[in-house]
Amino acid sequence: xxxxxxxxxxxxxxxxxxxxxxxxxxxxxxxxxxxxxxxxxxxxxxxxxxxxxxxxxxxxxxxxxxxxxxxxxxxxxxxxxxxxxxxxxxxxxxxxxxxxxxxxxxxxxxxxxxxxxxxxxxxxxxxxxxxxxxxxxx
Length: 138
Known about the structure:
about 40% strand
């Protein structure tokens, strides 16, 4: 003879399974080893790109230009952001503050991208003329 489960038996079996899974999920409360996520994966936002010519800039003479990229990322420390970009005819951008050398003979177009450890990113474009300081708020 084979045992049979009526609807009451199925309910009891479901209740036992629920209790077993609930109890097994209540392991110890020690934190897991390794890094702990502190944010919700929000992307970085470029809030300003500013450029300043080195003192004594003369049109037609190569001169240093300091590019400063300001970023807001609520869930990532500034040191954990990666910067990349290019100012045409001047050089590459590789950090929050980068110095490039421009020939000072025309207009220079630039782009910068900031990426956080989760792969979120923001990109901004800017341009400036010879010996000109300025900023853009994307």
